[in-house]
Amino acid sequence: MMNNKAKELELVNTNFVTPHGLDEETHYTSAYELAKITDYALNNKKFSTIVNTKSTTIHINGYAKTINNTNELLGNLNGVDGVKTGFTNNAGRCLVTSTTRNGHQIICVVLGADTKNIRTKDSIKLIEYTFSNFEYVNIKEKIENKFNEWKQDNINNINIIKGKTQTPKIELETIKYEEIPINKNDVKDIEIEIKCKNTLQAPILQDEIIGNVVVKVKDEVISTVNIKISEQIQKKGIQDYINQLLSNYNLYINMGLRNIKV
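-> structure tokens emitted (262 positions)
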């Protein structure tokens, strides 16, 4: 079941063998995929509440017992609201930390530390570095503005072979992330490229992908959004060609009559 969930989350470097996580040769994951697992798990309100609880009292056979969270950053570092400590002989001291400041959340993963003190210091350094050096950019707004400008200049240049219409209705697919954290020094290097087919063959189904918008920072792709047909384009039939022929004929006659001098 755990491996099925890993596939669902598109984790390619994670494999579960035991439910408790103790060392096994084929039981493994990565820092990046632990962050993805954490991001998914934090959507569960019960889970997010538990990992953000510093201590609580439970009752066992009628006896009260206080249990404390082992996350040393919880309650001691601004914005920390989870998540999990860990240790095995092979993995070393590990800590996955969620920190939220000014409405923005990051997930920090430290693995393989020799001591608890080292994992704490490394986690703090990573968290503070991220909040100090990255800013959130409204990438959705940039993509939509660029796309609308492009569409205005290029929509009439798309040729639809045998289509009942020559003006396709196109739109962007849903933009997954409205804001993306980008290094402050790299914000000026954001580039947006639009690639779209300029010749289409009817019939064209609704939601058919005909291009994409690619956002790059220093040649690294940070977001891709597809361009799709928002309304089906039907193929011309015999009657359409007859109507077009008659229309062209009438236009030709009318132009000829205008050129006759009396």
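The two ends are 89 Å apart (CA to CA).
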